[in-house]
Amino acid sequence: EVQLVESGGGLVQPGGSLRLSCAASGFTFGYYDMTWVRQAPGKGPEWVSDINSGGGNIHYADSVKGRFTISRDNAKNTLHLQMNSLKPGDTAVYYCALGGRFTYSFKGQGTQVTVSG
Fold first, then answer.
1. What single DSSP character describes residue 103?
2. SS3 letters for 26-69?
3. Half-sphere exposure of residue 69, counting CA atoms within 13 Å on the CB side?
4. For residue range 29-51, what is the model confidence (pLDDT) as tens digits?
């Protein structure tokens, strides 16, 4: 059974940082591209970043470029998203997803990130 479990969300003041993690199981993690998407209240899903299976090909949405860093540890079946210089507009539920930006097929339950203060 494919499982993706996100963690690391919370409440942070503008300008603060959070590091999200996604623990993957039930599939060969190192074979697959992975993606972070987010969904703000009342809005549709927004692609944030993706990383290829080997970790050498990475893309970011313009809205997060220079502030967020995606990474993965294939030995630990874990995906990360380091988020710095957070803004109120980053408030959303963040999901890790199995697959690339246009092909992801499964998401975890999400972790809430709230930037306020």
1. T
2. CCCHHHCCEEEEEECCCCCEEEEEEECCCCCCEEECCCCCCCEE
3. 8
4. 999 999 999 999 999 999 999 99
